[in-house]
Amino acid sequence: MDSRIMLGVAVAAAALLGLAGCSGGDASTSSSTGAASSAEASAPATDDSSSGSSDDGGITGLATAETDLGTIVVDSAGNTVYQFDSDTQGGDASTCTGQCAENWPAVHGDDGAVELDGVTGEVGSITGIDGQPQLTLDGWPLYYFAGDAAAGDTAGQGVNGVWWVLTPAGEPVRG
To answer: Which residue, among 75, 57, 56, 55, has the nearest Cα to 65 in the 3D structure?
Structure first.
């Protein structure tokens, strides 16, 4: 077998193993959206110019965007945010740790300083696994997906049947 093909297979396998760490269930299930085909995917940038973040690393706002999935919640730079079914709605902790947290970084921010544009659900925060404030919406901790390359991407939708975008009221959009 050609070494380039073997390298491609190895990269694809590594990406799938990384995502499986966040499945919350059967790791053999896959996303119906074809999410994250690259092991080199990175989380949305956290500098002020590209992600709507503040100087302390937290975002400055949540907003809504019109997508094929309907109206969903994004950060102030248009990066899609997600919730994780393994978390407990209204709980005080994230269950996404280790490799999961690398693929699904927390949305940092101080709920008292976040501007809302079209978001109607209750915004709060918990202490994330890294000790930083992690935003919540309607009790769900919020995350980015490392496979979303640009604002407006929704590649994390439905990954392993446990990751979902949210409506402005903070309800997961399943399906």
So the answer is: 75
The answer to whether 39 touches 14, Cβ cutoff 8 Å, is yes
- What span, in angstroms and rounded, lies between the C-alpha atoms of 30 and 163? 11
From first to last of its 175 residues, the chain has per-residue pLDDT tens of 444 443 343 434 334 334 444 554 333 223 333 333 222 233 443 333 334 444 445 677 999 999 999 999 999 999 999 999 999 999 999 999 999 999 999 999 987 878 899 999 999 999 999 999 999 999 999 999 999 999 999 999 999 999 999 999 999 999 8
C-alpha distances in Å from residue 148, one per residue of 42, 63, 81, 157: 8, 17, 10, 10
Quote the CA–CA distance of 139 and 18 in Å, as a whole number: 26
Burial of 56 (0-12, 13-18, 19+ CB in 10 A): exposed
Which helix H or strand E contains 115, and what residues bound it? strand 115-117
What is the distance of C-alpha 127 from the center of its chain?
17
Indicate the SS3 state at residue 133: strand
Look up the pTM and report it: 0.72
